[in-house]
Write a structure and sequence with these properties.
single chain; globular; 263 residues; mainly alpha; 2% strand
Length: 263
C-alpha cells in the first residue's frame, strides 16, 4: 500500500480517540446523540471517499470544455440552493442562474486569460472555481435576502411613492437598499480577509504549507483567492439585485409583490 495512504490511515486511527472522548461525554451526560454521531461520522467518511474517487477522475481532465462543464454543474446546484431558500421572489432561479453564471465565468475566464490560472492544471483550477461558486452563492443569498427584507420593511412607504408616480429605481436607490444589501453580503468575507493569519489560517493555505509550499507564496496565493471570492460574490449580487428591482414591482397595481411567503 502507498506510504502516504498508510500514514493517513494511521493519523485517522489516532483521531478516533477524540471521537471516543466525544462519545464518552455523550454517554456520561446522557445527551442521546451517540447514534447520530456514529452515523454522521460514517456518512461523512463515505461521502468523502466517494468524492475523492470522483476527484481523481475530474483532476485528469484538461481543456476548456470538460473544466467549464464541471464548473457549470457546480453553478447549477448552487443556484438551486439559493432558489429553494428565496422561492418567494419572482423568477429567482433564472435571476440567480444568470447572476452567478456571469460572475463565475467572468472571474475564471479573466484569471485564465491573464495566466493566473491554467486550464492545464485542473487540480488547482477546479477547486478554485468551486470556491468562487460557493462564495458567490453565499454572498448572493445574503445580499438578495437583505434586499428582500429591506423592501418588505419599507413596503408602505414604497407603495405610497409608487402611487405618486415615482419610478421604482429612484425609490429603491433613495432608500439605499442596494448598497445595504451588498454591504451585508460581503461583510463576512471581508471580516475573514481582515483577520487572515491572526484569527485563522484558511484551509487552502494550510494545505499548501503542509504540502511544502513556500509560506510567502502560499500567503500571496491565499489573498489572491480571497479577491476572487469577494469579487465574484459582489458581481453576482449586484446582477441579482439589478434584475430583481423591476420584478418585485407589480406594474398594474403599483405595489410590491413576492416579498414574503406570507403573501
Amino acid at each position: 500500500m502507498d506510504a502516504e495512504i498508510l500514514r493517513a490511515l494511521y493519523q485517522f486511527t489516532g483521531s478516533l480517540a477524540i471521537l471516543g472522548a466525544i462519545l464518552g461525554i455523550n454517554y456520561y451526560k446522557k445527551m442521546g446523540m451517540g447514534k447520530d454521531l456514529i452515523v454522521a461520522t460514517l456518512r461523512g467518511l463515505t461521502q468523502l471517499l466517494i468524492l475523492s474517487s470522483i476527484l481523481l477522475l475530474v483532476f485528469t481532465q484538461k481543456g476548456i470544455i470538460p473544466l467549464y462543464g464541471i464548473l457549470s454543474i457546480m453553478i447549477f446546484f448552487a443556484v438551486q440552493t439559493i432558489a429553494k431558500r428565496l422561492d418567494s421572489l419572482p423568477d429567482i432561479f433564472k435571476v440567480e442562474l444568470v447572476s452567478i453564471a456571469i460572475s463565475v465565468y467572468l472571474i475564471m475566464t479573466t484569471m485564465t486569460i491573464l495566466g493566473v490560472l491554467s486550464l492545464e492544471d485542473a487540480p488547482i483550477w477546479i477547486p478554485i472555481g468551486g470556491m468562487v461558486v460557493g462564495n458567490s452563492m453565499n454572498i448572493t443569498y445574503l445580499s438578495t435576502e437583505r434586499f428582500r427584507s429591506e423592501l418588505e420593511k419599507s413596503r408602505q412607504s414604497v407603495t405610497t411613492a409608487l402611487n405618486l408616480g415615482i419610478s421604482p429605481n429612484f425609490i429603491i436607490d433613495k432608500l439605499g437598499t442596494v448598497s445595504t444589501a451588498l454591504r451585508v453580503g460581503i461583510t463576512p468575507s471581508t471580516n475573514n480577509l481582515r483577520t487572515l493569519g491572526i484569527v485563522f489560517i484558511p484551509g487552502l493555505m494550510t494545505g499548501l504549507l503542509i504540502g511544502g509550499y513556500n509560506p510567502l507564496a502560499a500567503a500571496l496565493l491565499q489573498v489572491m483567492i480571497f479577491f476572487l471570492l469577494i469579487g465574484g460574490g459582489l458581481i453576482s449580487s449586484l446582477i441579482s439585485i439589478t434584475l430583481l428591482k423591476n420584478r418585485v414591482i407589480d406594474n398594474e397595481t403599483m405595489t410590491l409583490n413576492y416579498l414574503s411567503k406570507e403573501q
